[in-house]
């Protein structure tokens, strides 16, 4: 969908929604609402992560700079995971778990603002609805989603 609508647009929408759902996690009053917000947060971040690869590919010509950009993107996940575990533990022991989400929301909204001005523009989208009907395998996407969901359910 990002190839049809525009990578920048999908990335920014995903980052904004992720920021909103992160705030929702901090404001959640029940375990169920926290789980729902975390689920939506995962869907929103999937819009960001997949389009980031396309943005890097289009922004850098094949070179060492592109390789470094991909390496930094790949390294961000384990570094973020590790820092998240450490900082989350510190927050839980000191100011409370909700503050981890509030701080993450602040950082996310700041980065969304920077991305609005820093990301390169997209080519104008043409015939979006027609292309989405022709170029996307909706049946295959639905089958893959159901299969992964069932596998996750069985494994859990």
How are the secondary structure elements laid out?
Layout: H1 2-5, H2 7-27, H3 31-59, H4 64-93, H5 97-118, H6 128-135, H7 138-155
Helix pairs in contact: 2-3, 2-5, 3-4, 4-5
Polypeptide structure, described:
The protein has two domains: about 1-125; about 125-155. It is about 85% helix and about 0% strand. It has helices at about 1-5, 5-25, 30-60, 65-95, 95-120, 130-135, 140-155. Helix 2 (about 5-25) packs antiparallel against helix 5, helix 3 (about 30-60) runs antiparallel to helix 4 (about 65-95) and helix 4 packs antiparallel against helix 5 (about 95-120). The chain is globular, with a radius of gyration of 18 Å. The two termini are about 30 Å apart. The model has no long low-confidence stretch (mean pLDDT about 90).
Q: Supply the number of helical segments.
A: 7
Morphology: globular
- Which range does the strand content fall in? under 5%
| Sheet of most strands | none
Mean pLDDT: 89
Which residues form runs of ≥5 with pLDDT under 50? none
Q: What structural class results from the helix and strand content?
A: mainly alpha
What is the radius of gyration computed over CA atoms, rounded to a whole number of angstroms? Answer: 18 Å
Helix proportion range: over 70%
Give the N-to-C terminal Cα separation. Answer: 30 Å
Number of strands: 0
**Order of SSEs:** HHHHHHH
Total number of distinct structural domains: 2
């Amino acid at each position: 969908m990002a190839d049809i609508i525009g990578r920048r647009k999908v990335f920014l929408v995903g980052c904004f929604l992720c920021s909103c759902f992160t705030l929702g996690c901090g404001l959640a009053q029940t375990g169920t609402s926290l789980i729902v917000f975390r689920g939506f947060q995962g869907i929103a971040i999937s819009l960001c992560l997949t389009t980031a690869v396309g943005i890097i590919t289009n922004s850098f010509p094949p070179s060492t700079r592109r390789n470094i950009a991909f390496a930094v993107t790949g390294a961000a996940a384990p570094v973020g995971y590790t820092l998240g575990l450490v900082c989350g533990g510190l927050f839980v022991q000191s100011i409370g778990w909700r503050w981890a989400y509030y701080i993450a929301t602040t950082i996310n909204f700041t980065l969304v603002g920077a991305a609005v001005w820093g990301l390169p523009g997209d080519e104008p989208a043409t015939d979006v609805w027609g292309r989405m009907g022709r170029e996307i395998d909706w049946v295959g996407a639905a089958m893959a989603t159901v299969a992964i969901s069932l596998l996750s359910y069985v494994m859990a």
